[in-house]
Design a protein that fits this description.
Protein name: Probable branched-chain-amino-acid aminotransferase
Bound molecules: 4'-deoxy-4'-aminopyridoxal-5'-phosphate
CATH topology of the largest domain: D-amino Acid Aminotransferase, Chain A, domain 2
Family: Belongs to the class-IV pyridoxal-phosphate-dependent aminotransferase family.
GO molecular function: transaminase activity
Distance between the termini: 31 Å
Number of strands: 15
Helix content: 25-40%
Radius of gyration: 19 Å
Structural class: alpha+beta
Enzyme class: transferase
Keywords: Amino-acid biosynthesis, Aminotransferase, Branched-chain amino acid biosynthesis, Transferase
CATH architecture of the largest domain: Alpha-Beta Barrel
């Protein structure tokens, strides 16, 4: 049983109440963020909070009154749950209103925050890598907004599991967009690192941005363009990034083995650099 933060109060999860008329529930109107902490220190919290603010603005959802306190609440929530390494999840919805498409709630936006202990660096995905499938990206065209409207992702991840792999990469008419909850990178035979440029077609991952910085620091050539579906056949390495995956090597895509089916040297180097960054930033 954990302590959560709901609309200004720290409460036991069993005592928390949200209205059945909350627009997050009735219309799927909601924004979220996931920020990780390593040894009590948050990773890229400012970037996550900036993205949260942007998502709210793009959807016309008011910022909650705790706006300037969010990073303090994040820290306190970890402490109250005795967590040093784990994640904080934040969700904001417009709040409760009669069920009408356009009406604006009179009360405050709903702010829910919860914490969970996770040992990211010991996950099988991080240590051993993942197998993935590719599926057409059936989501909407505002994937730059981090919305709680996650049914396509839930379906894609369940479909992956039922096919014996652990995740799904999405593609559109230009190539790979992103993973169901991650950004996708490919290292080609020349050692060039390729990932899709930012646009409304994908989420601007905070981990993606950090990895691009680290890649440039170690002298890698970076191309921001869509990865073609056929490129996995000749790829030297492949990986996904997210706050919770950190960097997870991709071993196979739709059964195609990437190089020798093991995490490649550039992936391992970036994992090490990123771990240094999150431990000592
Ligand atoms: N794309 C999608 C669709 C995601 O859900 C996530 C995870 N939040 C990412 C990319 C990676 O973003 P981040 O590195 O900020 O966790």
């Amino acid at each position: 049983m954990s302590i959560i933060f709901l609309n200004g109060h720290y409460v036991h999860e069993k005592d928390a109440r949200i209205s059945p008329f909350d627009r997050g529930f009735t219309f799927g109107e909601g924004i979220y963020e996931v920020c990780i902490a390593i040894n009590g220190k948050f990773v890229d919290a400012l970037e996550h909070l900036a993205r949260l603010e942007r998502s709210l603005k793009e959807c016309g959802i008011d910022t909650p009154p705790e706006r300037d306190e969010l990073s303090n609440i994040m820290s306190e929530l970890l402490q109250k749950n005795d967590i040093t390494t784990g994640l904080v999840y934040l969700q904001i919805t417009p709040g409760a209103s009669p069920r009408n498409f356009t009406i604006r709630p009179e009360g405050r936006p709903t702010l829910l925050m919860l914490a969970q202990g996770v040992d990211f660096k010991r996950s099988p995905a991080f240590l051993d890598g993942i197998h993935v499938q590719m599926r057409q990206d059936i989501r909407w065209l505002r994937r730059d907004i981090k919305t709680t409207m996650l049914m396509p992702q839930v379906m894609a991840k369940r479909d992956a599991l039922s096919n014996g792999v652990s995740d799904t990469l999405y593609y559109d008419e230009y190539g790979i967009t992103e993973g169901a909850s991650s950004n996708v990178f490919l290292v080609d035979a020349n050692g060039t690192l390729i990932t899709r440029a930012l646009s409304n077609h994908l989420l601007a991952g905070c981990t993606r941005a950090r990895i691009l910085d680290l890649a440039q620091n170690i002298g890698l050539t970076v191309e921001d363009r869509p990865i073609q579906l056929t490129e996995f056949v000749t790829a030297a390495e492949c990986f996904v990034t997210s706050a919770t995956y950190l960097i997870a090597p991709i071993l196979t895509v739709d059964g195609v083995i990437i190089k020798d089916g093991k995490a490649g040297p550039i992936t391992r180097l970036l994992q090490n650099k990123y771990c240094d960054y999150i431990e000592y930033n």
